[in-house]
Amino acid sequence: MGVQFLLEVDNLHTYFFTKSGAVKAVDGVSFVIKPGEILGIVGESGSGKSITALSIMGLVPNPPGRIIEGKIYYNGEDLIQKSEKQMRRIRGNKISMIFQDPMTSLNPVFTIGHQLIETVRAHRDVSKKQAEDRACELLTLVGISDPKQRLKNYPHEFSGGMRQRVMIAMALACDPELLIADEPTTALDVTVQAQILELLKQLQEELGMAIIMITHDLGVVAEICDRVMVMYAGKQVEFTDHISLFDHPKHPYTWGLLGSIPKIEKEKKRLTAIAGHPPDLQHLPQGCHFADRCKQAMDQCRSHEPVLKEISSNHLVRCLLYEDKRVELT
Amino acid sequence: MTTLLEVKDLEKHFPITKGTVIPREMGAVKAVDGVSFKVEQGKTLGLVGESGCGKSTTGRTILKLTEPTGGHIYFGGQDITHLKGNKLRRLRQDMQLIFQDPFASLNPRMTVEQIIAEPLKVFGVHGKERRKRISHLLEVVGLSAYHKERYPHEFSGGQRQRVGIARALALEPKLIICDEPVSALDVSIQAQVVNLMEDLQKEFGLTYLFIAHDLGVVHHISDQVAVMYLGEIVEFGNYDEIYAHPKHPYTQALLSAIPEASPHRKKERIVLKGDVPSSANPPTGCKFHTRCPFAEQRCRLEKPVMKMVSPTGQTAACHFVEEVSEVG
């Protein structure tokens, strides 16, 4: 149990039990976060990145979802063992979350002020006046001018970018040590996305909190993350710092992802798309889950499941290309 | 080279009315406010801008899904601005649309065969011939004939978008207006669809009007690019010039805002302040002056006109093009 880590996720398995069988949404994910670090989780839809976040928050809908194995240590305490009451004290206070869609995360029938003050008072024993002052402070912190007036506005009076700022303000209400951002900029325009990323970076420096940044955009990762975990079909396939990921990507899936992004260069090259589509999580293929889409796939990829292996310091890859077993088998 | 589509001073104003009994016009949302461009046969024009800048409305107005309130649309030399009834319907064979959301644009109660058959039915292709065409179309977009019997929910997002493309191709159109065709898809699937669209363009000599907010994708697929801001085109030119030497401060800011998939970033970022102003009440003078880092008194009063900024036809609407481009 590492107390020096803020959060330690160890061999997490979150499955959804449906009528037609178990869906292995998260299947053995492990990682640690140090205080003040930004960790990126990248993957396509259905790769299990959001479910990993919901598992940490204790928000996996049960039934049908259940964490069937694994530990989540937060400052040395196992979150999975906590009761709902204890979790409520941690959620929002120590770990908070912002969601993808700022349009649906705010309640349209209450003012921003009402919702912010409610958040502050749910976690802290303060008077209404103090909570209002705190709300003003928070809006100023996230760069909304004239906060006193804006508190009286309803969500529909804010633009998409402003709403996401309000969501961030709400998440910061209790000075969390860890902020989980689930695709915070996906619904926004590039110019506004740049503003929000800038804001998150600046807040992270000022407040010293750690951030888990969930995204499918490798551009966003390059922009703000320290370390990156690439997920595919519920499993980590590559885990390294952001420089190595872009300079020396090792996993064929990461190559495919990087090749799929249109680059703004003089010469137009055909995109190296990944063929096919992600596997059905209920009927996962034997062996490596990526084998069907992989250009490097060998015969043993379909029978042997690769393990996550450290191939150089701080660079983990799950691929048979880097396993010694390959030599024995061929 | 022949011009397939020409748009001249296109305007689409949506009236704002007040009062239910006797509606009075209180103003107008100027969604499209004097847009002009040309698209050559077999080429792709990329139309970019933030949400609410009027790029989708431009596309819909060209297809005459909404009546333009001003300006002219020429398709293959013919003025189609006020075309109605049967003539319009026949024209629509040549212009098709691919939608953004592959989940919402296919009827969940129809099989793929019925979906693709719809346009063929309207234009009188029947029986064996129709079935043959549908099988062929599915193969063209990278699906198989056995997919015909399936319903949209049995497909992934990328496959659904392929069905949408097959439907658009059914009548062998000349022009396809693509309204954010890949923004709802994952990166790896997005690349597949972009590659497919490029192949189809080569094979059938299609002309695309490609509407998107992702500047990377637009760069990849377009021959020419038009940048829109609040219902107006602020910069127009060949893709390589616009991306290498953006002249308008808005284009510069847009380009610098793209998160690059590389940790070694060279350029300093221009972060625009604030949001896009409302198009019901746009700023005076240059509409961009409220967010422009170079704005001066003149920008607030006087509306800039499109100026030629390079010998190859790049144009930009800014009073200070020369000064600004030195900075960029």
Folded structure, characterized:
The complex is a heterodimer of chains A (330) and B (328). Chain A contains twelve helices and twelve strands. Chain A is α/β, with parallel strands linked by helices. The longest helix of chain A is centred in the middle third of the chain and has 18 residues, at 190-207. In chain A, helix 5 (128-141) crosses helix 7 (160-171). Chain A has helices spanning 49-57, 84-90, 102-105, 112-123, 128-141, 147-150, 160-171, 190-207, 218-224, 242-247, 252-260, 325-329, and strands spanning 7-18, 21-33, 38-42, 65-74, 77-78, 95-98, 178-182, 210-215, 227-232, 235-241, 308-312, 315-318. By secondary structure, chain B is α/β, with parallel strands linked by helices. Helix content of chain B is 32%, strand content 24%. Chain B has eleven helices and twelve strands. Chain B has helices spanning 55-62, 85-91, 112-122, 127-140, 157-169, 187-204, 215-221, 239-244, 249-257, 297-301, 321-327; strands at residues 3-18, 24-40, 44-48, 70-75, 78-79, 95-98, 175-179, 207-212, 224-229, 232-238, 307-308, 315-316. In chain B, the strands form two sheets. Chain B has an eight-stranded mixed beta sheet with strand order 6-7-8-3-9-10-12-11, with helices on both faces. A four-stranded antiparallel beta sheet of chain B has the order 2-1-4-5. In chain B, strand 1 and strand 2 form a beta hairpin. In chain B, helix 3 (112-122) runs parallel beside helix 5, helix 4 packs across helix 5 and helix 5 runs parallel beside helix 6 (187-204). The two termini of chain B are 33 Å apart. The mean pLDDT of chain B is 89. Chains A and B meet through helix 7, helix 8, helix 9, helix 10 and helix 11 of A and helix 5, helix 6, helix 7, helix 8 and helix 9 of B.
